């Protein structure tokens, strides 16, 4: 039996195996036989055994025991054995194997073999898996072959040199002279190899690049020859003469013309000629045109030539071949920034590609469309993009939504358009938007104050239609909570009026609360919104009370906590409820708590009304300048006192810097769970004020290294009751102050009851503690005000 | 330059693998898995270009075989389609109406032809006739050498 039949017989047997196990069995047997054969002396079938092993290797089985056999076969004088040996070396050996070094000598010998086909094997293998060491060793041989051999060997030597330069860049210098002279060869294979080698040398060494710029005229000549020659059967591909060589020359020209006016000039006419005359009806021609466009856009070409290039890409967009459409878009993407206007001219075609059935084309069209959005075309582009979003493949939805938001933010022609656009995205792709979309949209809505009515109506309608899109539901709940009163009023300029009753609204929020589709965060939104409505509706407050109290035993801890606090707000702190749940001011986008990078959770907390334990305002209305009066009085060498964040906490937790201060304060302090004032401990009490029947006593209690609790107790010994009794305090700048809720604001006559005000201080720099207190009250129909300063605090603990 | 060339069947069986840069065995297996999965998942009328890691993948189906070529960033994808086509033409000329079975049972010939057309991740010869002639000459050399070698030494 002839040996090669044995290889094919083995393949047949393996292929007829019906299971993986059977196949493994056959292969194990064969490998054992092959191993045995390898150990035997030369039996004439060595190359076939190795070939069998290589087949087994391709199926994925280990074949490392064949490595030494490769080395042996390469050293054989028989061509058939060398052929398989070298093939085996390329498949089984790489530069990391020790065995690869062993073939260096064989390669060296074979490079000078009398038969060019043996030389060819050596060259091919060296170019495939030659290590840096082997390359260094054999480089002079390769250089010799580059200069003096036939074209069959020269072309292979050139690519071998390319491999050597990639492995050992310093050797580039060695090959530069030979590479230069190869450009005068007529043989296309050699020419191609030369161009590849020169490209590699120029990419690695700027000096070499300088040198080779002089070859631009030669390269231009060669290209001209290719483009203008008549039909050449040997090199013709679909009417193009050697497109492979043309593309490589164009690529080299690109490198040489980059950032160099002279070189770019020298190739300008040629590029125009190629761009105009190349027939692009088949892929070969399109490949050449494509490379031409890339070159034109990358060198310093004339503007006319650039326009020509962009127009070629525009034509490509209309090509039936979707590969060409895809290529066109990737190229346009690269130049959309530098040649924006030229690309804009093709916007219509690009937008049409959004409807292309191919997913890769769609993706490219989306990226390019987003890059082409401008203030001028925003309305029409957005229509197309929103249309795309509603039917686009799921893997593109997130990218599309994000791109639409960015475009809307940059170019929105009006706030209403902006809000409408975002709502549209949330209804069609709500599940694919990023977390920060919710706070961003809320911020946008607050700034569009004349659109609050419109917005809350639209959101309400979206909510009752579909509560599955979490982002949309969250924004809707927030708006309903904030602007519920506008919703209930019914009329709105821009939307047909629809009667919405209080029960309808509460029904909607309760549906969200109870739905299994709602995420915990969403339910939090709904609960808070429900609570806020308690100050915006009139009839159904009891319903809200009962909802809130039910959730007080909810299994979700977050919801439970909120409900408990809202309950407290109904019961004990009912007098503060209106202030706490007041309409929020416009959220400042540039505030530190409102950065885009934050996750939804962090930013969201700022938007919620603060938890009660953060402390409440002493008065809701005190404007800033009145406290600054306090500041003016303290001057000189002392640090001016800083007003406590009384004012910052008037409105329910806006995302301003004051919020940050609030949080800092609670750092070193022990905050009691309920805002009740702590019981007075029997420590020294100082009377700091006594006038007009009002007595103010101060007592401090050290909480920590830097924290201090100051309790002010007021009593009224006069014969008349005092109402609206408030205290304000200011302390030195580095001291942090936090006023807790006072026990009340009514001070009855003749000392029948007292008022207490707790002040938490944090003195991290341990400065001298001072406090200025302003008192105001109404008695017998008149308003009274007074100020006092405390320069020393009682007790050793208070410093 | 090109990074690798893979030929696999519609069932994902590898028929030829040519690696133009040194790649560890485990990495090769992973790449083969990724390529076959990605390419076989493509819908029939998709475009022939994919993105994978930092490479451009060009693939084309000829009868029951997928030809898959990995390119670096500056390589021309449209030309790569021509490269694949040229290789198929060379195989077709050599085997006469080449089919998958020819490549299975004569895989070493498929490699020899490839090694006359591409080298080191670049195109070696742009003329079909020259490649064909080189293969024929090599085959002839192999036969004559074998004939010569098997004659009894005198």
TrEMBL record, chain A:
One of its GO terms (cellular component) is AP-1 adaptor complex. Residues 587-621, 633-683 are annotated as: Disordered. The keyword Cell membrane does not apply. Its main location: membrane. SMART domains: Alpha_adaptinC2. Residues 659-683 have a biased composition (Low complexity). It is found in: Cytoplasmic vesicle membrane; Endomembrane system; Golgi apparatus. Residues 605-614 have a biased composition (Basic and acidic residues). InterPro entries: Adaptor_Complx_Large_Subunit, AP1_complex_gsu, ARM-like, ARM-type_fold, Clathrin/coatomer_adapt-like_N, Clathrin_a/b/g-adaptin_app_Ig, Clathrin_app_Ig-like_sf, GAE_dom. GO terms for biological process: axis elongation; central nervous system development; intracellular protein transport; vasculature development; vesicle-mediated transport. It is a peripheral membrane protein. Residues 681-794 form the GAE domain. Pfam families: Adaptin_N (PF01602), Alpha_adaptinC2 (PF02883). Keywords: Cytoplasmic vesicle, Golgi apparatus, Membrane, Protein transport, Transport. Belongs to the adaptor complexes large subunit family. This is AP-1 complex subunit gamma. It comes from Myripristis murdjan. The lineage of its organism: Eukaryota, Metazoa, Chordata, Craniata, Vertebrata.
UniProtKB/TrEMBL annotation, chain B:
Its main location: membrane. The keyword Membrane applies. The keyword Signal does not apply. Keywords: Coated pit, Cytoplasmic vesicle, Golgi apparatus, Membrane, Protein transport, Transport. GO terms for molecular function: clathrin adaptor activity. Residues 2-140 form the AP complex mu/sigma subunit domain. GO terms for cellular component: AP-1 adaptor complex; clathrin-coated pit. Pfam families: Clat_adaptor_s. Gene3D superfamilies: 3.30.450.60. SUPFAM superfamilies: SNARE-like. One of its GO terms (biological process) is intracellular protein transport. It is found in: Cytoplasmic vesicle membrane; Golgi apparatus; Membrane, Clathrin-coated pit. InterPro entries: AP1_sigma, AP_complex_ssu, AP_mu_sigma_su, Clathrin_sm-chain_CS, Longin-like_dom_sf. It is a peripheral membrane protein. Belongs to the adaptor complexes small subunit family. Adaptor protein complex 1 (AP-1) is a heterotetramer composed of two large adaptins (gamma-type subunit AP1G1 and beta-type subunit AP1B1), a medium adaptin (mu-type subunit AP1M1 or AP1M2) and a small adaptin (sigma-type subunit AP1S1 or AP1S2 or AP1S3). This is AP complex subunit sigma. It comes from Myripristis murdjan. The lineage of its organism: Eukaryota, Metazoa, Chordata, Craniata, Vertebrata. The gene is ap1s3b.
């Amino acid at each position: 039996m002839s040996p090669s039949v044995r290889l094919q017989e083995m393949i047949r047997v393996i292929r007829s195996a019906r299971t993986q196990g059977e196949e493994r069995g056959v292969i194990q047997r064969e490998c054992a036989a092959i191993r045995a054969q390898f150990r035997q002396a030369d039996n004439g079938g060595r190359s076939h055994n190795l070939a069998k092993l290589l087949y087994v290797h391709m199926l994925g089985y280990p074949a490392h025991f064949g490595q030494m056999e490769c080395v042996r076969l390469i050293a054989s004088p028989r061509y058939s054995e060398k052929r398989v040996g070298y093939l085996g070396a390329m498949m089984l050996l790489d530069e990391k194997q020790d065995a690869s070094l062993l073939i260096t000598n064989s390669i060296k010998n074979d490079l000078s073999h009398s038969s060019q086909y043996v030389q060819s094997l050596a060259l091919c293998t060296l170019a495939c898996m030659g290590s840096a060491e082997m390359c260094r060793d054999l480089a002079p041989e390769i250089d010799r072959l580059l200069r003096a051999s036939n074209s069959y060997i020269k072309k292979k030597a050139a690519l071998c040199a390319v491999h050597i330069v990639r492995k050992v860049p310093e050797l580039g210098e060695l090959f530069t002279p030979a590479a230069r002279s190869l450009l005068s060869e007529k043989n296309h294979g050699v020419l191609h190899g030369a161009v590849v080698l020169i490209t590699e040398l120029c990419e690695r060494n700027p000096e070499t690049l300088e040198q080779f710029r002089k070859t631009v005229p030669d390269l231009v000549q060669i290209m001209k020859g290719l483009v203008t020659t008549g039909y050449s059967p040997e090199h013709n591909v679909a009417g193009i003469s050697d497109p492979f060589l043309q593309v490589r020359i164009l690529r080299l020209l690109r490198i040489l013309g980059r950032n160099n006016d002279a070189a770019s000039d020298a190739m300008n006419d040629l590029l125009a000629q190629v761009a105009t005359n190349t027939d692009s009806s088949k892929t070969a021609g399109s490949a050449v045109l494509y490379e031409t466009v890339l070159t034109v856009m990358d060198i310093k070409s004339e503007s006319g030539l650039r326009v020509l290039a962009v127009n070629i890409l525009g034509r490509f967009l209309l090509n039936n071949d979707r590969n060409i459409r895809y290529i066109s878009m990737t190229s346009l993407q690269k130049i959309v920034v530098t040649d924006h206007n030229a690309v804009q001219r093709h916007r219509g075609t690009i937008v049409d590609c959004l409807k292309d059935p191919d997913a890769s084309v769609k993706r490219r069209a989306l990226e390019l469309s987003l890059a082409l959005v401008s203030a001028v075309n925003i309305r029409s582009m957005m229509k197309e993009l929103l249309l795309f979003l509603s039917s686009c493949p799921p893997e593109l939805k997130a990218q599309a939504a994000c791109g639409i938001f960015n475009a809307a933010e940059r170019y929105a022609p009006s706030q209403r358009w902006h809000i409408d656009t975002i709502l549209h995205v949330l209804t069609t792709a709500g599940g694919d938007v990023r977390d920060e979309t919710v706070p961003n949209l809320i911020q946008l809505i607050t700034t569009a104050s004349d659109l609050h009515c419109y917005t809350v109506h639209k959101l309400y309608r979206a909510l009752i239609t579909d509560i599955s899109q979490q982002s949309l539901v969250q924004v809707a709940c927030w708006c309903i909570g904030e602007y519920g009163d506008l919703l209930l009023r019914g009329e709105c300029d821009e939307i047909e009026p629809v009667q919405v009753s209080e029960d309808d609204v509460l029904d909607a929020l309760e549906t969200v609360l109870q739905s299994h589709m709602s995420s915990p965060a969403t339910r939090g939104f709904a609960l808070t919104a429900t609570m806020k409505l308690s100050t915006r509706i009139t009839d159904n407050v009891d319903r809200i009370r009962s909802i809130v109290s039910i959730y007080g035993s909810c299994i979700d801890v977050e919801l439970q906590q909120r409900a408990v606090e809202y309950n407290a707000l109904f019961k004990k702190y009912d007098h503060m409820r209106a202030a706490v749940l007041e309409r929020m001011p416009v959220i400042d986008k540039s505030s530190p708590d409102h950065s885009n990078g934050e996750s939804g959770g962090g930013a969201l907390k700022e938007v919620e009304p603060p938890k009660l334990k953060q402390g409440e305002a002493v008065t809701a209305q005190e404007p800033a300048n009145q406290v600054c009066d306090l500041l003016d009085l303290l001057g000189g060498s002392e640090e001016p006192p800083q007003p406590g964040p009384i004012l910052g906490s008037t409105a329910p937790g806006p995302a301003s810097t004051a919020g940050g201060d609030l949080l800092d304060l609670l750092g070193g302090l022990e905050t009691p769970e309920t805002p009740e004032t702590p019981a007075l401990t029997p420590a020294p009490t100082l009377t700091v004020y006594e006038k007009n029947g009002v007595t103010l006593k101060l007592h401090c209690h050290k909480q920590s290294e830097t924290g201090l609790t100051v309790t002010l107790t007021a009593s009224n010994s006069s014969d008349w009751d005092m109402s609206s009794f408030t205290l304000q305090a200011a302390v030195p700048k580095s001291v942090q102050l936090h006023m807790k809720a006072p026990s009340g604001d009514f001070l009855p006559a003749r000392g029948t009851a007292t008022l207490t005000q707790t002040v938490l201080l944090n003195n991290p720099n341990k400065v001298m503690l001072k406090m200025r207190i302003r008192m105001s009250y109404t008695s017998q129909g008149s308003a009274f005000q007074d100020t006092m300063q405390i320069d020393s605090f009682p007790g050793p603990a208070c410093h | 330059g090109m990074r690798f060339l893979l030929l696999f069947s519609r069932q994902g069986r590898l028929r030829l693998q040519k690696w133009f840069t040194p790649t560890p065995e485990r990495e090769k297996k992973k790449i083969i898995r990724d390529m076959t999965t990605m390419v076989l998942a493509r819908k029939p009328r998709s475009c022939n270009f994919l993105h994978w890691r930092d490479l451009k993948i060009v693939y084309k189906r000829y009868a029951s075989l997928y030809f898959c070529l990995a390119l670096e960033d500056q390589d021309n994808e449209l030309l790569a389609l021509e490269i694949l086509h040229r290789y198929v033409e060379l195989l077709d000329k050599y085997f006469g109406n080449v089919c998958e079975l020819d490549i299975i049972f004569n895989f070493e010939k498929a490699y020899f032809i490839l090694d006359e057309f591409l080298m080191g991740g670049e195109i070696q010869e742009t003329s079909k006739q020259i490649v064909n002639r080189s293969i024929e000459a090599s085959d002839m050399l192999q036969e004559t050498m074998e004939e010569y070698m098997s004659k009894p030494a005198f």
